[in-house]
User: What shape does this take?
Amino acid sequence: MNLSLISNRYARALLAFAKDNGVEQVIHSQMKQLVNVYNELPQLSAIMINPILPVSTKKETLYVAVEQPNDVYKRFIDLVIKNGRETLLRNIALKYESLYCTEKNIVKGMLVTAVEPPAEVIASVERIFKTVINGTLELTTKVEPQIEGGFVLTFDTYRLDSSVKRQLRTIKKQFEVENSRMG
Amino acid sequence: MSENIKPSEVSEVLKRQLESINNSVQLEEVGTVLGVGDGVIRIYGLDNAEAGELLEFDNGDKAIVMNLEEDNVGAVLLGFSEHIKEGYTVKRTGRIASIKVGEGMLGRVINPLGEPVDGKGPILGELIELPLERKAPGVIFRQPVTQPLQTGLKAVDAMIPIGRGQRELIIGDRQTGKSAIAVDTIINQRQNFLDGDPVYCIYVAIGQKASTVANLVELLREKGALEYSIVVAATAAEPAALQYYAPFAGASIGEFFRDTGRHALVVYDDLSKQAVAYREMSLILRRPPGREAYPGDIFYLHSRLLERAAKIIEQQEVAEQMNDLPESLKGKVVAGGSLTALPLIETQAGDVSAYIPTNVISITDGQIFLDVNLFNSGVRPAIDVGISVSRVGGSAQIKAMKKVAGTLKIDQAQYRELEAFTKFGGDMDPVTAMTIDKGQKNTRLLVQQQYVPVPVEKQIAILFCGTNGLLRHVPLDKVDEFEADFLNHLELNHQSDVLDVLKKGAITPEVETLLREVAQSVTAQYRIK
Assistant: This one.
């Protein structure tokens, strides 16, 4: 069974329907919220694959997963549940995001730093990006003290890891390899 | 902190290491784990990942890409699933799954990733990286099997001879002595090792108990066979992916020796368990199940593995052009090497017509079938001569053995048929009685103790007595005694004029006369009055 094909079809249909209704941006933000909920609460996947739970409960759960669910969103959830494809909802949401970004020429990025980055740093990252990519950069920031220092920049499916944590790990690994050779 | 200073901790060495550290930042392609379950992960992203590519998690764990789908990638974990959680980031390494191979591996026990698991520290010496999956050598880079690989087992070397570069299946029910044949073959290579013409042995243990592997390693050490052997262990507790990749690791190590002009023997113990591990992975990856729930490419799994066993052409300039030669082996290729494979398959209640046994039978160049009834009646190795064959080994048999044991297989098959009639009782004509007597004594001659391989010259000498009816005056229960006395006598009195000549593969009329004389003198003490 080609699950990717099914999720693709649903995502494409949702994008087309949302565009017809002029709410593709709203749906995009709601799909993003849904993906975040999936990431933060793995129990949501368990709920969706549970065959015992009534359909109404699953529907309610998905309605409350996003803030102020749009009518298009609700209708889409109804359709997915009616067709018994709720287990694929996460893939559909991810695919919608990807289709939307491709269409709108948006590149998503995330800047992770050990401390709150100054506004001028963010601005300069955005400026550098504009010179290399065509389109809009949707940059989010995140503070993770565990990276010790430096930064991790993720965009599209790429990552530029210049954190102190990564550098220390690389040094450790190279030392280990070198020492194991020498005995 | 340890007070012991390692040689690698000298300041100058440390400085050099620091200088050589590469700390440059590179753009990595990453994906996000969508779900983990039973050793299989689904990853979102990694749009450019390739099939068979090695992936790496931030915690150092590794996975291999198996399924490429429209919007996600299915990969198998090479570690335990508990270490990986949903949402983890995984990056491409740009390398396909590979293993580091070198001479330093000899005498060691490693896992399918090439990491030592015997607690003896890191593997030393030069190591070269070889891919786990590699195309087998093409037709023009091979040559027919012509050199024998002596197993030290009379029944095998006489009737089902194995040649270097051959793939001979050992098949039978559980507890019928499959592994024993393979282990005996490894032990028998000791003389080659001492003579400076080693056959390096790789024993791949798939899905076995760790204690069984430990016992095997100890046994090989005791018999002096560990020096030229490598044990690749993916025990029953390891993830299915490691059990699946273990034979490929064994094949890669064997190829290292094969392509550098040496001879190697690889034992896959056993491929039924590998097939089960692959079925597990495939079903979790949602690949369509076929017969017995195995995936459609289960035949290809075994055929591509066993095709890697080969005898490489003797012409150096041709061998150097070998197809799919890894970069690391270029410039190191030496012609004339060989890789012999002894795959093992476990049958259920002797059913050789099940899916996996029929597949592997059709791939290999012959099979040694072990029968549980023979085993229980004390015929060990319990080889069923009737359905055991070696399709290419005959041309690799040494001339003396071919001459002596040429008719042994047919004689034994005839004896088995006639034996059934004797069960009814009644009178027998003298010819039938003689065939049965000879058959019974030859069966006794072919019985051999475990882990006591017999050198080929002794095998020829004793089988000469059996096939020429020189045992007709020896009572059946004295055949073992006769064998021991006969061989002792030869060793003490005819080492140079008989045994050394036989070792070279020749059997002259003079040697035959001497063998008859010795047999006659030894028989005299057992002569039935």
